[in-house]
């Protein structure tokens, strides 16, 4: 058990207490500069990073691209034109040129600029938006992805005409799922991978389709990117991850790795045909002899452990690199000598960087103390982005062993100069079956010893996720601490970072073990922290957290003065028929609704509405196809018919998340007002 009020005081933004006059407000949150996507050149001499910067009363955001050396006093230089957002930056092999995506010309295309700065030039001018790109190892070719129609094949103009066509009727027919995914209705197109030649810094404009014959999306939808594919070191091929769609796409997690010849002379070869589960994140060692990737073992389960695999490209032999490491790997990076793999994973309420010895499988946590959200390795250099509960993200550098850590950036100092952030502590307790469960408590910004404070009890989503030592831009505990609330949140059974058995334990038991953990965690927090006022407390959460709020409303209402359910499941049965990624509900309930009806009813909030009494704020977005808006509307209807004080906050232009700054402000203000209304002394 660890008790740390300020986890890394020497490495994060430190503001003198005397200058702090108020807590963090949502307007601060949406105004903060957000750094991400660190990239090193192959020699480890120059660093690229993206910085989302906000200006004006409308909180308009621009994603800028900066380059700098790794010396502590190096000055960053912005590479993109003022006011033009860019993304997906990369260096040319000689580090003289930086490439990036921009819509400055009216569509998303690849651009380039000298790494010393200067005028950017457009590299591609395709009739379609470039979704992603990756340079070949020699910099002479470029892999690019587009959304295209299968019957147009490699004819980009054909797809462009189809997208531009305005049908007479608005009606659309479908004969298979997906009809919609995340926040977009299907238009029949597929992401596909092409390769084009670069000639004197410009693309030839005649890309070759290399994912020919793949009835699936490369990269995957809705969140796939360049991690889904990788060049062979000799530049002769591309390995990519794809799920062959067919009719089973919405209930299949069978992504395979395919090797395609860049000249498209032959059809892509399936490298992982023997694994019916998820294969992802391909990356080669420098020799091209070994392909590393991550793989799940259980078909249909999106939260299975991602094991690290190594495939010998000559013999075809496959082995698991670290079978004893009970964590789920993220994307992989290979050290220059090929002896070490680097990856991120959840671990005990944090998100550290791990080094995996390729030969022995030994896994070492080399950088923790918060949320390491991204990293880059080149030569002997390691840079990473880290945030904590008391500090927004900054870029750091260290040795490959995670030693000699130093900050390279110091963003948001002026914005936070008069803001006090609540101190925090991790605690543990005996949860379900007396197994150890972890949680966090955050003090209000204006904490005074001897006083008691109302409590925001936040329940994380997923449910196979984790809420811990990180600076989140939606569910940030400091926004509640900034309004004078103490905050408690629990990583209940089903959370990630505590071993796969712990994660697995929630499936088929959504309202069982997790509820017991939440109840015992609440009791443990009240017993341990006398500043928590258990008589003034509200429970709130989103997605699975919203489901649990709806479940709590009928099964554990006694402690709560109010509830907040954002995008929560209200009727598990209808969720099983209306969500887009059917594999999720079907795994969690052991099958389809019609095959396992009792499983869907076992922990169904709709069956307990007669016991609802606690005031509830319900929030939902119209474009939420993961948990459709009707779930929120139904919960609100139930509250109104029960004559329970309730409000419904509706966003016609948001999906499962609330992303637009003005909407985020309304979202936070509404929740804070709701909590303050019902916890007022």
Please, could you describe this protein's structure?
- It is built from 11 helices and 41 strands.
- The protein has 681 residues and is of the alpha+beta class.
- The protein has a domain at 419-679: Rossmann fold (3-Layer(aba) Sandwich).
- The radius of gyration is 25 Å and the shape is globular.
Features:
single chain; 681 residues; alpha+beta; Rossmann fold; eight-stranded mixed beta sheet; five-stranded antiparallel beta sheet; 15% helix
Could you write a compact summary of the structure shown?
The protein is an alpha+beta fold.
Topology, element by element:
Elements: E1 22-23, H1 26-31, E2 34-40, E3 46-55, E4 60-69, E5 77-78, E6 86-91, E7 97-102, E8 109-114, E9 121-122, E10 132-135, E11 141-148, H2 156-164, E12 180-181, E13 184-185, E14 190-199, E15 202-203, E16 208-209, E17 229-231, E18 237-243, E19 255-261, E20 269-270, E21 279-284, E22 290-295, E23 307-312, E24 318-320, E25 333-334, E26 340-344, E27 353-357, E28 363-367, E29 371-378, E30 381-388, E31 391-398, E32 406-407, E33 419-420, E34 424-430, E35 436-442, E36 453-459, H3 477-481, E37 486-491, H4 500-504, H5 513-528, E38 532-542, H6 544-555, E39 562-566, H7 572-578, H8 582-588, H9 597-602, E40 616-621, H10 629-641, E41 646-651, H11 661-679
Parallel strand pairs: 1-33, 36-37, 36-38, 38-39, 39-40, 40-41
Antiparallel strand pairs: 2-3, 3-4, 4-5, 6-7, 7-8, 8-9, 10-11, 11-14, 12-13, 14-15, 14-16, 17-18, 18-19, 19-20, 21-22, 22-23, 23-24, 25-26, 26-27, 27-28, 29-30, 30-31, 31-32, 34-35, 35-37
